[in-house]
Design a protein that fits this description.
The protein is built from 16 helices and 18 strands. By secondary structure, the protein is an alpha/beta fold. It comes from Chryseobacterium vrystaatense.
């Protein structure tokens, strides 16, 4: 047996006297860790409680509590007139004291001891920068959010005793109250004649598309998307092992004749669309093409996955109603996010589909998000019921429209000789096409050196196209001016 004096307990036991975890439990956990990792092998005699308390500079009662805890958990045994010993199976290669510094108990393994599948498809495409000015792909300005008012809704709900029982059980079907009000809201705002039974509440649009893909897509299926499409959605499709076919778009959205030709050549399983504001070009799918696509879906039996990206943000006229509002054959699955104009924590995703598909989707949601967020959904339901959503959206739309108009003026004043664009009728981003070729990655790097960050996910460059998607919603007038100034200066240097 090792003599207790040979083991440097003070070298691997660290005590945080400001921690909320009791000192005796801190020490006990570290000793257990040492036993598990072989530093304190079978048969090791621990010092007496008086000596142990002197080594670690703790009260003897604390040392007694440590040993009692180790004994209760079955790591040590105390033998009368002999001492306290580590119990367990003999270890083939216990860690030697002189090697202990190489095998610190504070080190977590740097790599797994087993192999696993890796995916290049799911590599995170998003970048981070400390630049003061940042372009994104079109997100709301969190500074406009009335967080205090939204929080009061949530706080009020949490305090009600009638709602506290919601915390004690799982309900992956979501809040019935919220679904009731959301279905009514979608009926009035989007012309969707649905009930709460046609709704599935998710955490995000990406989660919605993942669930849809898991149920409806199989490896080898063909999915049609726009020639430029939403990159994160394409990542989900690729992970499903499908064959993605990109089709041309123009100023009226995806070209229907190309969809028809694709259907004649092969079996199409799904068509993915962002018809309200096509991502990334911001063009709206015309009403006539929407009807033609519905007819094609019925004729050839493919699914239309309609993403209502940026539906809430429209300025010049009322938006065209979704394809789902005119679908009578059950060929459209409608997905979107609710509360995008609110603080991020108050947003949620949803799926609208016929009830037979909805029952299958609930099974998948029950696996990946069993708990849900019933209280937040209740708060959102009350915000709909009391008209808070309508009031806030109306107020924020006025601000975003002013920002859109000013952003367009700045682009024209500073970059008119280099770019062309159409002022978007809605959404929170502009699509800029460069009249002359410019290395967008180099432009992005140069701007970053001047405190303006342009992520690579906003850059679109091929031999036939040089374009950018620039969000304006998160920028006030002063930030717009500085950002466009930096972009313009660096573009002129390159060109």
């Amino acid at each position: 047996m090792d003599s207790p004096v040979k083991i440097p307990y003070e070298s691997f036991i660290e005590i945080d006297r400001n921690s909320e975890t009791s000192i005796f439990m801190q020490i006990a956990n570290q000793l257990i860790n040492a036993i598990q990792r072989g530093f304190l092998p079978y048969g090791t005699k621990l010092p007496g409680t008086r000596a142990f308390s002197d080594i670690l500079d703790i009260h003897r009662n604390t040392a007694v509590a440590v040993y009692d805890e180790l004994s209760a958990q079955g790591w040590v045994e105390s033998l009368p007139n002999k001492g306290t010993f580590i119990i367990g199976e003999n270890q083939e290669k216990p860690v030697r004291v002189k090697d202990f510094e190489k095998n610190s108990l504070q080190n977590y393994p740097e790599a797994t001891g087993f192999s696993f599948k890796t995916s290049n498809i799911l590599d995170n495409p998003f970048e981070h920068s400390d630049c003061e000015y940042v372009f994104n792909d079109g997100v709301p300005d969190i500074r406009l959010t009335q967080i205090g008012q939204h929080s009061r809704f949530y706080s009020s709900i949490l305090k009600r005793k009638s709602n506290q029982k919601m915390l004690g059980h799982y309900n992956h079907d979501g809040s019935e109250f919220f679904k009731e009000h959301l279905s009514h809201y979608l009926n009035l705002s989007r012309g969707l004649p649905i009930s709460k039974n046609n709704l599935l509440i998710t955490r995000s649009t990406e989660m919605s598309i993942y669930i849809v893909s898991e149920i409806l897509l199989s490896a080898g299926d063909t999915v049609l998307v726009g020639a430029l499409s939403y990159f994160s959605v394409n990542m989900i499709f690729q992970k499903s092992g499908v064959h993605i076919v990109s089709l041309p778009i123009d100023e009226e959205g995806i070209i229907v004749e190309h969809v028809r030709e694709a259907c004649k050549k092969r079996q199409i399983r799904m068509l993915y669309l962002t018809p309200h504001h096509h991502y990334p070009t911001t063009v709206a799918l015309s009403a006539q093409r929407r009807l033609e696509l519905l007819d094609l879906a019925h004729e050839y039996g493919f699914i239309i996955l309609e993403d209502d990206y940026d539906y809430e943000f429209h300025y010049d006229k009322s938006p065209i109603l979704p394809l789902a509002s005119a679908d009578t054959k059950g060929m459209v699955i409608y997905i979107g996010s609710f509360g995008k104009s609110l603080a991020p924590g108050f947003r949620t995703g949803f799926i609208v589909a016929p009830e037979n598909l909805m029952s299958e989707m609930r099974k998948y949601l029950g696996i990946i998000d069993r708990q849900g967020d019933i209280l937040m959904e209740r708060a959102l339901g009350e915000m709909i019921e009391e008209g808070e959503i309508h009031r806030y959206l109306k107020k924020s739309l006025k601000v975003y429209q002013e920002r859109r108009n000013y952003f367009a003026e700045l682009l024209t004043e500073n970059l008119d000789e280099f770019i062309q664009f159409q002022k978007p009728s809605g959404g929170l981003a502009f699509w800029l096409e460069w009249k002359v070729p410019v290395n967008l990655m180099q432009l992005s790097r140069n701007c970053a050196r001047n405190n303006l960050f342009i992520p690579k996910t906003l850059l679109y460059q091929t031999k036939d196209l040089t374009a950018m998607r620039l969000g304006f919603g998160n920028l006030n007038f002063e930030e717009m001016e500085k950002s466009i100034e930096i972009l313009s200066d660096n573009a002129k240097r390159l060109l």
